[in-house]
């Protein structure tokens, strides 16, 4: 005997079947500091960066806040891939000298910009060349380095040209915790 599937269930199943199996929004962040540099330095500068990857839209949203730098900013980008996760140095993977919208010539500031990972302009030319000569190759290499903990966000300044503050990108879950008001409200209804 055939059972009828409600129309809403059928539509939901069709939509789910059409979505890519690996669709994901991936979240990474880091704290920026002078002691995290290689070699470490005594900068009082601090900050944080958050990188959000949408592997369906092929976008990378970069958010950064920093303050207290010794010198004014000259560059800001992501370096990848180090030989060992969480340590070492690597070449610049993303555009140079700085991300579009990053404030140069300042001691503190913010950035919030979304980049198209399918565009060659998002990457440093030598990084593209080293990864097959295409934006697709550069994207795959950058995402693999970030996922492996082998990519770091770096801010360079006039006082520390090699990098005043940096931090290795690590995955994090942006889901609100039970301590947040919204999570507490939602828990009342589940």
Quickly count the domains.
Answer: 1
- Estimated structural class: alpha+beta
Rg result:
20 Å
How is the main sheet built? Answer: 5 strands, antiparallel
* Level-1 CATH class name: Mainly Beta
Helix content: 10-25%
Low-confidence stretches: 7-20
- Coarse shape: globular
- State the separation between the terminal residues, measured CA to CA: 35 Å
Order of helices and strands: HEEEEEHHEEEH
- CATH topology grouping: Immunoglobulin-like
Tally of individual helices: 4
CATH architecture classification? Sandwich
Mean pLDDT: 87
Task: Describe what this molecule looks like in 3D.
The protein is α+β, with helices and mostly antiparallel strands and 190 residues long. It has one domain: Immunoglobulin-like (Sandwich), CATH 2.60.40. It is built from 4 helices and 8 strands; from the N terminus they run αβββββααβββα. The two termini are 35 Å apart. Mean pLDDT is 87; it is low at 7-20.
Features:
alpha+beta, 5-stranded antiparallel sheet, 3-stranded antiparallel sheet, 190 residues, 8 strands, 20% helix
Outline of the structure:
Helix content is 20%, strand content 29%. The chain is α+β, with helices and mostly antiparallel strands. The protein has a single domain (21-170), classed as Immunoglobulin-like.
SSE topology:
Layout: H1 7-18, E1 25-33, E2 46-54, E3 59-67, E4 73-80, E5 109-116, H2 125-130, H3 135-147, E6 151-157, E7 165-168, E8 170-171, H4 181-187
Antiparallel strand pairs: 1-2, 1-8, 2-3, 3-5, 4-6, 6-7
